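Long-time lurker, first post. I've been practising inverse folding by hand and with some scripts of my own, and I keep getting stuck on stretches where the structure tokens seem ambiguous. Below is the full token string for one chain I'm working on. Before anyone asks, I'm not after the true native sequence, just a reasonable design that respects the backbone. If someone could post their per-position residues I'd love to compare against what I wrote down in my notebook.
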């Protein structure tokens, strides 16, 4: 078993243990292997071990890898980084899932670009900056309803849920952020179907699963440090 395959197996085991500990089914938590800055060969190793969903944070890198790995027809590309409107065309062309819609203008631009690609609807999540950290992207909780409405107004986009990134290195703050995102989902679920909660990374995936994550984004624990 390769190093990537062994680490991937351990992450899957962590997800399963965390789910069982809180009475959930581990199969209900999707693992997105965040492969940003890693070469296509590392993705092929993870693919050979059964992984299909991969996360990228930069539009150009996503495009390059999607083309280099085009022979792997069932790859599922998740764009998980901050997305600028001028990169929406590239992401709409290659991504299957966008985790980082955070404004009305981005929702409109991504919807327009996705319609031109004519690949069917593009699934999206709205990123929420729960902690109000100025260095992080994301809609404020107060702006969430407006961004939800903007996504829903785009026929080429399918709103699937919410995403957040907690403060690094603070388990207590991470738990609060994850619980708050789940509460926001419940608050806004009356106006939109929001089944997905994308939250949790290498260091805090267990807490995220306990708080209801349906998708965890794990890079370092699978591919090693950057």
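-- Answer (accepted) --
I ran through it position by position. Result:
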């Amino acid at each position: 078993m390769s190093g990537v395959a062994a680490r991937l197996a351990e992450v899957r085991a962590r997800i399963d243990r965390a789910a069982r500990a809180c009475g959930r089914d581990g199969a209900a938590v999707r693992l997105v292997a965040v492969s940003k800055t890693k070469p296509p060969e590392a993705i092929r190793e993870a693919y050979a071990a059964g992984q299909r969903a991969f996360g990228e944070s930069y539009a150009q890198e996503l495009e390059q890898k999607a083309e280099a790995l085009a022979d792997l027809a069932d790859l599922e590309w998740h764009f998980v980084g901050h997305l600028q409107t001028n990169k929406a065309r590239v992401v709409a062309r290659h991504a299957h899932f966008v985790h980082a819609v955070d404004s009305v203008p981005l929702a409109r631009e991504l919807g327009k670009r996705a319609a031109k690609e004519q690949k069917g609807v593009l699934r999206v999540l709205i990123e929420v900056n729960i902690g109000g950290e100025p260095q992080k992207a994301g809609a404020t909780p107060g702006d969430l309803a407006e961004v939800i409405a903007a996504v829903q107004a785009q026929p080429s986009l399918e709103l699937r849920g919410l995403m957040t990134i907690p403060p690094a290195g603070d388990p207590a703050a991470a738990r609060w952020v994850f619980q708050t995102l789940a509460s926001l989902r419940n608050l806004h679920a009356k106006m939109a179907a929001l089944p997905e909660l994308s939250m949790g990374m290498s260091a805090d995936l267990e807490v995220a699963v306990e708080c209801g994550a349906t998708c965890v984004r794990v890079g370092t624990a699978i591919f090693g440090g950057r």
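A couple of notes from the structure itself: The first strand starts at residue 30 and ends at 34. The mean pLDDT is 95. Happy to go over any region you disagree with.
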